[in-house]
Amino acid sequence: MSQVFGSNSIDIPSKESFWSVYQTIKNIPGLNIMEKLWASYYVYMDNDLFATGLLFFLLHEIMYFGRCIPWYIIDRTPYFKKYKIQPNHYPSDKEQWECTKSVLKSHFFVEAFPIWFFHPICEKIGVSYDVPFPSLLTMFYQITIFFFLEDAWHYWFHRGIHYGSFYRIIHKQHHRYAAPFGLAAEYAHPIEVMLLGFGTVGIPIVWCYFTRNLHLFTICVWITLRLFQAIDAHSGYEFPISLHHFLFIWAGADHHDEHHHHFIGNYASSFRLWDYFLDTEAGDTAKQTREKINKTKAEKTAKVQVSAEK
Ligand SMILES: [Zn+2]
Ligand SMILES: [Zn+2]
Q: Where is the Fatty acid hydroxylase domain (predicted)?
């Protein structure tokens, strides 16, 4: 078969092993190792729909469980107890195993199906999966935009599923653990998985629909970073080197831990902005500030009423 990579056309015999495909592709000038591996993978698979589906399924499994393992070890290491946000609440092995089974069920029975529609959708709206990849600057600005858009999506829909029946039917499952741990990040009802998952997967698709400028590799990096953010936010640990100490708008674990602890407030995923400006911060300090503001407002209104009556 003949494959075209940028301005290079290259002949690759079919039914080759991955290694021999790579040996041919590695001679294409101007590609870095990641781009060569990416191109070799798509040529070797010889079925783009299956290649993308498998890639995203494996990426999700490896990145999710790979990121949870260090948190499991930290939970079992007494040294780290001083950094635990709720030091008296550790998940038991039984709880972690129940959670893992439920998350795996969701991955196989809820997410594995729509994943096969991903490649045709990407092709239709012009998501590129060719090599070379876009520049680091392009990936950086697009992923930054996705973080802010996903955060807004997450804030409003997460806040929405805290209301009445929505909470009881959909979101209650995720709140089973008042002291969260990494594996609990995706422990949720299938409707919640699809609804909040749209913020991660759907937003790049909508972005590409309007801009016609997005690469599949950028989506892979974005999904990986978003998974890390969600798992770390559920880790239950706050370190002196946690990102929000340096990037003050970053939410981090203490922000989401408060949400699980108090059940209300702190609805955003990655940043503290929505909760700060819309006065939905969780926790005792935020509650006291809110009560103080409400009290001042009520006193002012009462004063205005008294002077109007005079
Ligand atoms: Zn919630
Ligand atoms: Zn949560």
A: 144-280
Exposed / middle / buried, residue 65 (Cβ in 10 Å: 0-12, 13-18, 19+): middle
CA distance 76 to 96: 12
Contact call for residues 217 and 38 (beta carbons, < 8 A): yes
Residue spans per domain, the chain: 1-46, 52-274, 279-310
* Least distant ligand from the CA of 263: 1
Enter the pTM of the model.
0.88
Q: How far is CA 246 from the centre of its chain?
A: 20
For residue 161, which ligand has an atom nearest its CA? Answer: 1
Q: Which helix or strand (DSSP H or E) is residue 274 part of?
A: helix 273-277
Distance CA 264, CA 253 (A): 16
Question: In angstroms, rounded to a whole number, what is the distance separating the alpha carbons of residues 111 and 128?
Answer: 23
Helical residues (DSSP H) of 134-251, grouped into ranges: 136-160, 164-166, 190-211, 216-233
Distance 13 CA to ligand 2 centre (A): 49
Reported as a single tens digit per residue, the pLDDT across 155-193 is: 999 999 999 999 999 999 999 988 899 999 999 999 999
Low-confidence residues of the chain: pLDDT under 50: 2
- For ligand 1, the distance from its centroid to the CA atom of residue 252, given in whole angstroms, is 15
Q: Which ligand is nearest to the CA of 188?
A: 2
Ligand nearest, relative to CA of residue 256: 2
Ligand in closest contact with the CA of 177: 2
| Token pair 């690759």 in the structure block, residue | 12
Measure 267 CA to ligand 1 centroid, in angstroms. 7
Distance (angstroms) between ligand 1 centre and the Cα of 118 equals 28
- CB 74, CB 80: distance < 8 Å: yes
Q: What is the pLDDT of residues 131-153, one digit of tens each?
A: 899 999 999 999 999 999 999 99
Q: Which residues contact 269 (CB under 8 A, 6 or more apart)?
A: 150, 151, 154, 155, 158, 199, 229, 230, 233, 251, 256
